[in-house]
Write a structure and sequence with these properties.
Elements: H1 2-8, E1 19-20, H2 23-32, H3 35-48, H4 52-76, H5 82-103, E2 110-111, H6 115-134
Parallel strand pairs: 1-2
């Protein structure tokens, strides 16, 4: 009977073998960059855990969130970026609190460092930011 119990007990926890980005990282990237960046991190988590179909759906949802933010903020015609941060916070909360918890309900995961994703995000965002700053007026 002891041998039978030893055979049925898993030798490792499969969840611990998957390294993912934390929900705080997903929320932060969504707020400070855009929901596409947070969605891409969540997509990478899902791909690493073997859920490719759900991963592509999350990326599509985050693109829709970003487009909605652009459309809504551009209709307000304000100079400040506070509305975009507000919408990014809401979309980031949906990605991190709803979708992240839906696909990663337990906290048994090892979290990835964000440095590589942060450098890539800055490299993508910096040219757009510089173009906005140095664009000729009018």
């Amino acid at each position: 009977m002891t041998e039978e119990n030893d055979l049925t007990t898993p030798s490792f926890n499969q969840e611990n073998t998957v390294k993912i980005y934390s929900k705080r990282a997903i929320w932060g990237f969504s707020v400070f960059f855009s929901p596409v960046f947070g969605g891409f991190l969540l997509r990478q988590n899902l791909i690493n855990s073997g859920s490719k179909k759900e991963a592509n759906l999350i990326l599509l949802i985050s693109i829709v969130f970003t487009v909605l933010t652009i459309l809504i903020v551009n209709n307000f015609h304000t100079k400040g970026g506070s509305f975009s941060y507000l919408f990014n916070m809401v979309w980031g909360a949906i990605l991190s609190e709803y979708f992240f918890k839906k696909y990663f309900p337990s906290d048994n995961y090892e979290y990835k460092k964000i440095w590589k994703a942060l450098i890539i995000s800055i490299a993508i965002t910096a040219p757009f930011l510089l173009a906005m700053i140095f664009a000729p007026a009018g």
